[in-house]
Design goal:
This protein has 2 helices and 8 strands; from the N terminus they run αββββββββα. Strands 1, 2, 3, 4, 5, 6, 7 and 8 form an 8-stranded antiparallel beta sheet that branches. β3 (about 55-60) and β4 (about 65-75) form a beta hairpin. By secondary structure, the chain is an alpha+beta fold.
């Protein structure tokens, strides 16, 4: 069974849990949302995506069937623009129907951190600088390899 197939099964469970007004704790894989979410260290608490706004982290399904947990960086009439916190390339045109859930809190060890405190707002303010750093670093690699 592939990862996409397993995640599709999990997505059904997530949708069932949040449809009843509950939440679902997901242990994400990958590095695209570092340092906000770290594989094997951080869990994301998912809830219904009732009120979605800029800077929310959401679980959505791409047209190719892949499930992704990324942050909303722009909201436009034609859809949402997403990007991982550890990335700088934007993904455009994600539709509301593709969004399954949004992250309401994270769990690190035994501590649950709701995404409404000063620490989280401070993190969000630093995100544009992180993306700029990632972009400049990628450009520098191209220049260095080109010589």
């Amino acid at each position: 069974m592939t990862d996409v197939m397993r995640m599709a099964d999990i997505a059904v469970l997530i949708e069932a849990a949040i449809a009843e007004g509950g939440e679902f704790v997901l242990y994400p894989r990958g590095t695209s949302m570092r340092p906000f979410l770290r594989e094997n260290e951080t869990a994301a608490v998912l809830v219904a995506p009732d009120s979605i706004k800029k800077h929310d982290t959401v679980l959505y399904r791409r047209e190719n069937g892949a499930y992704v947990l990324h942050r909303i960086v722009k909201i436009k009439p034609d859809g949402y623009t997403m990007c991982g916190d550890n990335q700088y390339i934007l993904e455009h045109g994600i539709q509301k129907l593709q969004i399954i859930a949004k992250v309401s809190a994270i769990i690190v060890g035994d501590m649950r951190d709701e995404l409404s405190g000063k620490k989280y707002r401070r993190y969000l303010r630093r995100l544009p600088l992180r993306r700029l750093y990632k972009r400049l670093r990628a450009c520098a690699r191209v220049i260095i390899k080109g010589r």
